[in-house]
Fold this protein.
Amino acid sequence: MENVNIKINGIPLSVPKNYTILEAARENGFEIPTLCYLKDINAIGACRICVVEVKGARSLVAACVYPVNEGMEVVTNSPAVLKARRLTLELILSTHDKKCLSCVRSGSCELQKLCKEYGVEDENFFEGVNERVEIDMSAPHMYRDNNKCILCRRCVAACEKLQSVSVIGPIERGFKTHIGSPFEVELDATSCVSCGQCIVACPTGALSEKDDTDKVWAALADPTKHVVVQTAPSIRVTLGEAFGMPVGSNVKGKMVAALRRLGFDKVFDTDFSADLTIMEEANEFLERVKNGGTLPMITSCSPGWVKFCEFNYPEMIDNLSTCKSPQQMFGAVIKTYYAEKNNIDPKDIVSVSIMPCTAKKFEVGRDHQDAAGVADVDIALTTRELARMIERAGIMFTQLPDEEFDNPLGESTGAGVIFGATGGVMEAALRTAVEKLTGEELKALDFTEVRGTAGIKEATYNVAGMDVNVAVASGLANARALLEDVKAGRKNYHFIEIMACPGGCVNGGGQPTQPASVRNFVDLRAERAKAIYEEDKNLPVRKSHENPMIKKIYDEYFGEPGSHKAHHVLHTQYVDRKNG
Amino acid sequence: MAKASSTLPFGGTPEQEAQLKQYIEEHKGQGGALMPVLQKAQEIYGYLPIEVQQMVSDGLGVSMSEIYGVVTFYSQFSLAPKGKYKISVCLGTACYVKGSGDVFNRLSERLGITNGECTPDGRFSLEACRCIGACGLAPVLTVNDDVYGRLVVDDVDDILAKYAE
Ligand code: SF4
Ligand code: SF4
Ligand code: SF4
Ligand code: FES
Ligand code: FES
């Protein structure tokens, strides 16, 4: 890329020609605040908080969309710039429901931070229209409080551009402008897939998960309840961010220690049931290949994706693996096998999960997720809610020692842990399926073709004389593109992995929020995934079927993968949500 | 506050649908087709209920969220049909100070509808409008082409009675 010469705050610089002022400044040590801008999906130049002075320009320009050009001289922090930014903030505040003290985002709110930085002294400087509207509490996974919405449209962009779901948009104009769904229906009445990508895109407290921590506090305080917790593969590589640690820190040991100190009776690892998923899914795949079952088979561990399929591609429901997700398999095992072994009534068990995902809150309430006649999982918390509990309990997270998961269900493999990143389920399944098909030990365990942050990845592996075509998509817009190719016959695959969130669970809608000032310049998907693959590399066992506890549970309980009992406990059904 | 939607059952005919579909076919794929298509749809149906917006969405491959956003952004688009008798109450300054607000409220109360809505039987629609240039007669309302001036709240029932048939 050709470079151009510019000056920022008097400092001569040479920067790539395709940069915006924002990018050029950031790379050279000057941060320009942003509110509406989100890299790749929302460059609308609407909020004007990023204004800077450009020599010769008649007015201040929006740095997030303004390209650099030869000889340009920019000032990012002149008195006029600072005054304009403060004015913008005061105007936003004039209609804002300023309730920082009770706001879920207080401390992580981008608006709040900017008000402090720009010295907004009187938050009521302008008297705006302050008509308050009802909070939309309809959906099981999140709420929308438009009284705290600053109309940046980052949520709209996430829903449309990342997910191709498009159930929210700006409505009306002027002071009446607000974000909502067509014909003002509540979110729960739309084809929202519960992914939560809008929440992690939102700079303020307008969007948040439904907080279920009170239910967990109550269970923990109830001596008659046996409270068991499982943590999804990706939580260990993101939870640290909520306590100020760098993106990509693996805090597995501290996470386990914190959960134990919160008072959970058992702290288990969803990685175990990821291994279990692989056993069932690999078996299901081989059966389908052998018996002419519906292909391509598509993974079913991402409840946002499953709901998307049910709404938009009901004709492909038979392609979905019937395997429950790892969260649900874990819950089912706890309330059947584990309850029997330990002689506990399943009704006295409270099964809690810590998930990277808001759709998991929807999933726990689905039909056919109750192997023991009671819900497999009772409460699904996001990473953010767990962080909130740890904070409230006064547990000094960063100073915790490293502890180990409880056994027996804390045992897992590298195959289980990589479920947390896009391509991980495919790779884990291949590690098992290839060995089963060839009957020989698999030496090269790294299927690097399906790793990485690309939205769609494909590969062909020759296994025991058969060419197996696989594809991996993350982000539902990518999934849609892939499925259109499949439907039109342009592509032929045997096995497809789909995760609803771009980059997979590591970038899930329940993960700690990162402000745009981080999101725009750090690839969260890649940094968090790195920590996942690092853990896989260092684990002694990296194939699901070699997990000793997996062998044991089949010996003692399920018999074979796909057995009648396995079907009853570990598999589920789907519904056509399009045609009712 | 939302633009008022219609509670009337949708009464579109196959001819109207064919006409809209043909127009969509001709304009599909061109950049910025949404505005002209919505204008055409409003011309054909007189308003843009959910059924019509869904046809446009399916035809153009544009999300309902985007369409609804556009329809509510521009005041030229209407979500509710006009009644057989379209009542407009002037809320311009002169009329307002002489009490047209109260006249509007009485109408709204009697008809059971608010601004931009149409009665379930399709007879009356009600809207507030800006100065219609008859300030000398303030407060003023119109029913289709008939103008009523120097109103008091109690005139409302008599006026409605005239259009009872
Ligand atoms: S959204 Fe931000 S500014 Fe608004 S109340 Fe919450 S913390 Fe305060
Ligand atoms: S949860 Fe996902 S699908 Fe639902 S509105 Fe948010 S981004 Fe869209
Ligand atoms: S809800 Fe949040 S992300 Fe969406 S427009 Fe409002 S402030 Fe922006
Ligand atoms: S206009 Fe640049 S961040 Fe909003
Ligand atoms: S203000 Fe009503 S006619 Fe002018």
About this structure: The longest strand of chain A covers residues 466-474. The mean pLDDT of chain A is 96. Chain A touches chain B through 16 residues (CB under 8 Å).
